[in-house]
Design a protein that fits this description.
Blueprint (H helix, E strand, L loop, with lengths): L5 E5 L4 H11 L4 E6 L13 E5 L4 H10 L4 E5 L12 H4 L4 H9 L6 H14 L3 E2 L14 E2 L7 H19 L5 E5 L2 E5 L5 H11 L5 E5 L13 E2 L1 H9 L2 E7 L4 E2 L2 H10 L3 E5 L6
Parallel strand pairs: 1-2, 1-4, 2-3, 4-5, 9-11, 10-12, 11-13
Antiparallel strand pairs: 6-13, 7-8, 7-9
Helix pairs in contact: 4-5, 7-8
Length: 281
């Protein structure tokens, strides 16, 4: 891998921390743009240079990274999808010129994949190439097979088998990346609200518990952009809502501190399995 400085554009959650720590351990200086309202202030301690910027201040992103000598960058961390549907978004997140240009390109298509690909193109035009967001934390990727000591039941494996192709289909249609299944019946589908809200809804709809959460990547998935993640909060929320099994796409889903996530799942009695992805029809 390169020894040049690595740019990092960071949203919410632990994923940016894993990337920063992994890149520095590999000998790269990390220049980070933390997105106001989303990134953790803790991240500054894991980067060599840290600057705050607005989520639509793309020009500032570019200037910060270029001043830091970056020709490669990673964009990771959650930014609420509902932002694109906020009626006051132009006032809350005033764009700079480069950000406005990018925003105008997606005004008719605000699907996450379109927005992220546009960001990648704008960054490339400025001389900064986005790279695989898991390049510096491969040990945290889900692997194929049962990952916890607790094993899924035959009924849960049947739910995974039933729901897998359905989940890939809704992902291909850009609806969401997760569903809840019980007794081979879909009880909840993720949409704009995100996985945690869907988990809560599944718990209300399936009071008896024992359901399975399935989470996949988009069938047009680009490892530079929008890698699905599961963290300790996901496991705790799933337990509270009555989930008994979680199935993830192997090699394409990040466990946010894998060892801790799997240990917590075992403690709470949730089986976690990885399954190889297959193209949706």
């Amino acid at each position: 891998m390169s020894s040049e400085p690595l740019g990092l554009v960071a949203g919410e959650g632990l994923f940016p921390l894993l990337v920063a720590r992994g890149a520095r351990a590999a000998g790269r200086r990390v220049v980070c743009v933390g997105l106001w309202g989303f990134a953790s202030a803790q991240l500054a301690g894991d980067c060599d240079d840290f600057r705050w910027a607005g989520v639509l201040r793309l020009g500032k992103w570019v200037r910060t990274l270029r001043r830091g000598g970056c020709r490669e960058a990673i964009i990771v961390g959650r930014v609420a999808k509902s932002l694109m549907h906020d009626r006051w978004r132009w006032l809350r997140y005033i764009p700079d010129l480069r950000g406005l240009r990018a925003a105008l390109r997606v005004v008719r298509d605000t699907r996450p994949n379109t927005v992220l690909l546009t960001l990648a193109e704008e960054m490339a035009a400025a001389g900064i190439t986005l790279i695989d967001s898991t390049a510096y934390c491969p040990d945290h990727l889900a692997h194929e097979g049962v990952m916890t000591r607790r094993r899924p039941t035959q009924a849960q494996l049947a739910d995974v088998e039933t729901g897998w192709a359905i989940c890939q289909q809704i992902s291909r249609l850009d609806i969401g990346q997760a569903i809840a299944v019980k007794d081979r019946e879909v009880i909840a589908v993720e949409a704009l609200e995100g996985t945690d809200a869907m988990i809560e809804r599944a718990g209300r709809l399936c009071r008896g518990g024992g359901w399975t959460l399935i989470k996949v990547s988009n069938s047009r998935h680009d490892m530079r952009l929008d890698v699905p993640t599961v963290g300790e909060s996901t496991i705790r929320n799933a337990k509270k809502a009555g989930a008994a099994c979680i199935a993830l796409e192997a090699g394409r889903t990040i466990l946010l501190d894998k060892a801790r996530v799997l240990e917590l799942a075992d403690q709470l009695g949730i089986a976690v399995v990885g399954r190889a992805g297959t193209p949706a029809a």
